[in-house]
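Weekly modeling sync, notes
Attendees: AB, CL, MP (scribe)

Item 1: holo prediction request
CL wants a bound-state model with nicotinamide-adenine-dinucleotide before deciding which constructs to order. AB pointed out that an apo prediction alone won't tell us much about the pocket. Agreed to run with the ligand included and paste results into these notes for async review.

Input as submitted:
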Amino acid sequence: MKVGIIGSGTMGSGIAQVAATSGCIVKIYDTKQEALDKSKKSLEKVLARLIVKGRIDEIEKLRIQGNISYVNSLQDLGDSNLTIEAIIENLAIKQKVFAELETYVTDDCIIASNTSSLSIASIAASLQKPERCVGIHFFNPAPLMKLVEVIPAIQTSTEVLDKATQTISDWKKTVAVAKDTPGFIVNRVARPFYGEALRIYEEGLADFATIDWALKSLGGFRMGPFELMDFIGNDVNYTVTETVFTAFYFDPRYKPAFTQKRFSEAGYLGRKSGKGYYDYSEGAIKPTPTEDKDLAQTIFDRVLVMLINEAADALFLNVASATDIDNAMTKGVNYPKGLLTWADEKGIAWCVDKLDTMYNEYHEDRYRCSPLLRKMNREGKIFFK
Ligand SMILES: NC(=O)c1ccc[n+]([C@@H]2O[C@H](COP(=O)([O-])OP(=O)(O)OC[C@H]3O[C@@H](n4cnc5c(N)ncnc54)[C@H](O)[C@@H]3O)[C@@H](O)[C@H]2O)c1
């Protein structure tokens, strides 16, 4: 299979590595020669590291590198069976590139976008044959993260969706098919992990270190929400939240937090700026959490039930299947357990009760219980047998 990648930044380079490792002939295109050079160098480094770790040998390294060529013209992608675009997150620019690309490729070439926040329908609309367009959303780092969300637009043909899904499975990734809705699965369902943690902090219930400790020790999350926001970058994480909030017509469930906005405005972006919710400068001492078990339980229950509510509502609105929603969170963002599985374990009645208690306390729409949870509770159902 011949694969064309547009954009040789973080995502394009990672996707090219995945495709080339699976034996595809890959051409990667970027408008900037420096970006192509950087991509080539970073692949060399990544593969050298895999040799040191004993994952691949020199022959395999040369095979992967031999499968990738770096090109300066979009026209060079003309013989691709599949193209995946991973350029700047700007609709007008993506549409322009898609319209031009379509004049070079054959009629049966699939044209995909790795966009995180734009609708696939709006990108597909730039094509003469919009039915060939589909979202193929990898997670960073693409070679390591198992999950890929495949998103059919309303224009996408069944044949294109099937081919895209099959190709991504052949690349040994777990596919979760998601509806073309803001944040798809992961970037929607994960919002409360950050949002509720920030709200708990803003209410003065606990500090960053205590909230992180509660979610790691009771929930088994690898990183607490504040550690994770610092890792992702407060600017990047805030923008995703704001984009999802706006795209959902300002549904209060996704309302961004002033705390994160101020941290972002102040340049406290996290690890990359040396300071975020924590101090990353040399010799800095990490604050110790208040190890109060009852407080930890309150924090953990509140964040978990909000995550479960979001996952249940995504299922209620047919964003994806229950299995795909659970796989998305365990394989896309390394959650210790799928949220719907977690709901079954905690009990649907427990979830409804926790949400209703918060709703009664706050009278905020943010805490409204998903109709699906309420219905399942009434009917004594669970998500998985
Ligand atoms: N970084 C992430 O964690 C992540 C995860 C999933 C999806 N995405 C999405 O993937 C896409 C790329 O993100 P990234 O983080 O790799 O960005 P990046 O900035 O690392 O790379 C983008 C590359 O595209 C190139 N480019 C810009 N305009 C171009 C054009 N018109 N033609 C060809 N090349 C062009 C740039 O020179 C750059 O090398 C975005 O749509 C983003 O939303 C990013």
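Recorded for review: The first strand starts at residue 2 and ends at 6.
Action items: CL to compare against the apo run; MP to circulate these notes.
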